[in-house]
Automatic annotation (TrEMBL):
Protein name listed in UniProt: Nurim
Family the UniProt entry places it in: Belongs to the nurim family.
Protein's organism: Pongo abelii (Sumatran orangutan)
GO cellular component: nuclear inner membrane
Localization terms from the record: Nucleus inner membrane
Length: 262
């Protein structure tokens, strides 16, 4: 086990990496397709039909590369979440197990974003080109993306964000408080076992609601939607617990301070 003084910087480094990756993911999924950057379609002369695209190596090659990047991310994210792998990493990395998982996930996502190959000559599923749609559809998408990201950040307040990022485990270990999950209620542990992605609907909105859905964006949205769907298994009991926790935290936030009550 590493000395306590080394655990805190390691956990903080993992958190900073994850935070920076999250900011970059917002740019990758929202700002680039909505506000410019690499176009997702190459114009009327460059676009091809879907059947012709399946025979064009200039389209298939980048799609195969992008598919490999996504499978790398999904494989890492799923493999390191498996119970046997978690037990192995906990054995050798101890309290840093969660921080290691977060850091590896951030690095895998960085690989996807940095080496993603757009397919500008590929076909598009939909595209807002004619007025007034060319003006209003991007604006509507921008508003929905902003709302979705605000909801994502708000929902994270319901969950123990420090624990999700691995900071709380190290903090409790340094102070000798034990494992944070041991203090969770059975209802909370049940929820965490069913819900690996607490912002599924909002992420789906970000992935699919774009003015132009090109070939590479379709691949990204479809594969991540499939993955999110497989990892999302809430039932009515989980939803009731989520609603109760949200109401409790909203009550705490709205409660007047002692100085204001006088």
């Amino acid at each position: 086990m590493a000395p306590a003084l080394l655990l805190v910087p390691a956990a903080l480094a993992s958190f900073i990496l994850a935070f920076g990756t999250g900011v970059e993911f917002v740019r990758f999924t929202s700002l680039r397709p909505l506000l410019g950057g690499i176009p997702e379609s190459g114009g009327p002369d460059a676009r091809q039909g879907w059947l012709a695209a399946l025979q064009d190596r200039s389209i298939l090659a980048p799609l195969a590369w992008d598919l490999g990047l996504l499978l790398l991310f999904v494989g890492q994210h799923s493999l390191m979440a498996a119970e046997r792998v978690k037990a192995w990493t906990s054995r050798y990395f101890g309290v840093l197990q969660r921080s290691l998982y977060v850091a590896c996930t951030a690095l895998a996502l960085q690989l996807v974003m940095r080496y993603w190959e757009p397919v500008p000559r590929g076909p598009v599923l939909w595209e807002a080109r004619a007025e007034p749609w060319a003006t209003w559809v991007p604006l509507l998408c921008f508003v929905l993306h902003v709302i979705s990201w605000l909801l994502i950040f708000s929902i994270l307040l319901v969950f123990d964000y420090a624990e999700l990022m691995g900071l709380k485990q190290v903090y409790y270990h340094v102070l000798g408080l034990g494992e944070p999950l041991a203090l969770k209620s059975p209802r909370a542990l049940r929820l965490f076992s069913h819900l690996r992605h607490p912002v599924c609907v909002e992420l789906l909105t970000v992935l699919w609601v774009v003015p132009t859905l090109g070939t590479d964006r379709l691949l990204l949205a479809f594969l991540l939607t499939l993955y999110l769907g497989l990892a999302h298994g809430l039932d009515q009991q989980d939803l009731r617990y989520l609603r109760a926790q949200l109401q409790r935290k909203l009550h705490l936030l709205s409660r007047p301070q002692d100085g204001e009550a006088e």
